[in-house]
Prior knowledge:
The structure is a homodimer. Chain A has helices at about 35-45, 70-80, 85-90, 100-105, 125-135, 190-200, 220-225, 230-235, 235-240, 270, 305-320, 330-335, 360-380, 385-395, 400-410, 425-440, 475-490, 510-530, and strands spanning about 85, 115-120, 140-145, 160-165, 175-180, 185, 205, 240-250, 250-255, 280-285, 290, 295-300, 325-330, 350-360, 380-385, 410-420, 445-455, 455, 460-470.
Amino acid sequence: MAPETTQTGRAALPLPPMKWDAWGDPELAKPLSDDIKGLLAAALGVSGGDGERLTADQVVLTPSRLAKEDAEALAAAVGAEWLSTADADRLPRAGGKSTPDLLRRRSRDAQDAPDAVLLPGTEEEIAAVLALCAERRIAVVPFGGGTSVVGGVDPERGPFTAVLSLDLRRFDRLHELDEVSGEAVLGAGVTGPRAEELLGERGWELGHFPQSFRYATIGGFAATRSSGQDSAGHGRFDDMVSGLRVVTPAGTLDLGRAPASAAGPDLRELFLGSEGVLGIITAVRLRVHRKPESTVYGAWSFPDFATGAAALRAVEQQGTGPTVIRLSDEAETAINLAMTDKIGGTTVTGGCLAVTLFEGAAEHTVFRDEATAAVLAAAGGTPLGPDPATAWEHGRFNAPYLRDALLDAGALCETLETATGWANLPVLKAAVTEALQSALRESGTESLVMCHISHVYPTGASLYFTVVAAQRGDALAQWAGAKRAACDAIMANGGTITHHHAVGADHRPWLEQEIGELGVRILRAVKETVDPAGILNPGKLIP
Amino acid sequence: MAPETTQTGRAALPLPPMKWDAWGDPELAKPLSDDIKGLLAAALGVSGGDGERLTADQVVLTPSRLAKEDAEALAAAVGAEWLSTADADRLPRAGGKSTPDLLRRRSRDAQDAPDAVLLPGTEEEIAAVLALCAERRIAVVPFGGGTSVVGGVDPERGPFTAVLSLDLRRFDRLHELDEVSGEAVLGAGVTGPRAEELLGERGWELGHFPQSFRYATIGGFAATRSSGQDSAGHGRFDDMVSGLRVVTPAGTLDLGRAPASAAGPDLRELFLGSEGVLGIITAVRLRVHRKPESTVYGAWSFPDFATGAAALRAVEQQGTGPTVIRLSDEAETAINLAMTDKIGGTTVTGGCLAVTLFEGAAEHTVFRDEATAAVLAAAGGTPLGPDPATAWEHGRFNAPYLRDALLDAGALCETLETATGWANLPVLKAAVTEALQSALRESGTESLVMCHISHVYPTGASLYFTVVAAQRGDALAQWAGAKRAACDAIMANGGTITHHHAVGADHRPWLEQEIGELGVRILRAVKETVDPAGILNPGKLIP
């Protein structure tokens, strides 16, 4: 059967779960209130902007460059019904969901997109596709939920004739649940909610809740070293991974034989964070746990960020065991960003808000809450009762919707994140804030830079920044300048270029500063071994 | 100044802290009682044996093959006083401390040893040495405490003209202690006790207590993925590492910028477990903690190993937080192996002994003990009070001394270890036990195979086996057969080839089964990048 080669028309394939030009589910989007618009105009000079959205029909994509004979060979490998070059299939895989991505989706110029979309169903089909692509000089971009905010799924062709989006959504099964060991093997294409549904039917949960939870996939979490909001209790996603299956052009890897091992370098740690550049992750073995029998919520106010950060540090270093612990700085607290449903309310809250959440066996949960409360109180916190924490939990996945409304209103809005040791946290926070504000001021706008700590470790913590400013001139170039200033400030002040957003295309210029010139050479040597033709996700991760 | 090139005579360099032909400090060695000897004769047919030890003067080493001009060049690089080809310096670095190593040290045949010993004092000197060795085709074996039990410091020349032992003992400093972040930077040559001393002066501790603690070094712990007896509370050594400095022939790496990062593959995890094959670790940044204010001990009896293992699993999966938790099987419990000072006592203890230890803030320690006790009691444990746990702690580093006395008495004694998921634990334990007993029976002796769990994870645990049998014929060949059978059983039954002893020369034939053919090719590609001449620790780790 000949593959679908029309450039427009209806989608031939199942679509990604997320809207093509905005975050998430269009039903959940909310326009800004006139009050907020007035505030943005007064404080930041935000006005109308030319950011109106196109309909999908109005978007012009660059035509597919996939040669007919290549399309036929690929269709033969996966079944013609799983290959499409239709615009309606290509557009939703044209990029991720960074602010630059969303701005690009508003352009009336021809937009770049993968030349075809492919949905293989087995590892053997992936291996066959990779062999064909290596032979025919076609680049391959693995695609999960399409939630990248670092250009990780940009359809870059590199030196190749065409680029495919290889969507993993058919790898959608719970392969195995070992209820004794507390381990599950999940297909790479399983989304966050589907993972919880599959495990939940048997009384288990994964407990990985990044902001992309509703759309992102198991394979994507692994490939990007995702970190969820419950990381204090359950660890980062990479901590949960005990095994990985990876198909590469040079063969298939099945890594991870034991809960811990001293059998040399840990190769799982090469493929965690490999961002589709070293192979296609097809299945992940994960630590899971029984659904908690109780949840206890708490919230605290601290007079300032330094006091609050010291309190979180004390909790983590004493190990009193919160499942979630977060701290918003003064700016974020003032506009209630931690409780998205309350943003734009008339109350301006002072100080810094922290929320805590404890899950587990009832008695154990109560004890951990009490032990943590004692530490937080001793460190200068004032208890606020559970309500701010339940409000945070209720709106925990909604912040990205705000961005779409802000872009519509002519504001620029984006987030970025880093991490460092506790001692260096204030230095890094001040430097990044200053870099963003200066760069945006140079572009002609004041800015609001907010920050929170959402992931704590005994030795340090993450810093997550949210920036709002007025769009001035070319908003893409405007943000590129601010982002560059922030990244330079991160590297100059001892932070990591990314705590959980990954490298992709956007952070790639800074990776050599992070791992050194020899580190880059090591990555290139690994790449050369597993992908000698270099077809996997060109232009990402490795400089 | 000309280097020391005499083949015999007094040591020119500071010596390793451990006796050359036996474990540890000769003052602590104890001969077996006549009761135990009688028991060994009756149960296993152990008799005299020809295992008497030589004095150092009686040992004949193969002469140093280091060419005079090479020695002069190396002496110029590090200072002549830090290079020696004297037998008295070469013998203590001739191998590690596996049973085969100790048997080899008893041989009257010429024993192999490094051709010279070198003690560089700076990273620049190491880089200069590596450059010279690459140019002059000389192999380099990094040396820490010399406690390897897998042939990790065997003086293998590979295709090279000579082999150096590069002793890291001059990298002996606490470089930095960040009391806010709880991080310390320690030199690679700092031993376990010295690390605790340096940190302890300021109220901090590392808390890494493997059986090799008294002699092994920070660099060795990192290079071998060591795991200490407090791993339940403080994690494995690789978990504690936040940064590494590594000198390679291709340049120096400084890895680890943050407590956690999503900046691509984690290259620290390539050098943790790299066993001197990919570079020379010179300094390690480590998570440390304040000395605990209280310690609570507990001990429990379980009717059988399966019940005890299920109890440990419940503790770890519920996360009640012991610092130490261990379980001996019936055989190990019967001879009191967990309390080395009581071995050979007249009491034969039934069931399976578990010990627990909790460290931390007083209130928190008491709660964790109570929460753990509730889980252990519910899982079928009978409390025994604290005494067996304090007895275990008192003798925790002494078991290796027993082996020397057993070898003297004509017994064969060795340990080996693996790990797997909780569900697979009984299968793996039975298979390894059976493999060892069968192989030793074929060699003409019954054997006592004992086992304990000393490292627990939410998804699984380690299994640590101790084997005692009679020496029959060539004891080296006899043990090689038993070890091969055990390794094959581990791989056939889903275990890892090593949980914390590392790969070295002895486990190398099984590494490809562990990580796959493509995994081996990846390691080779990394090796080729950082050590193109292949001079670093030939014959170890990478098949």
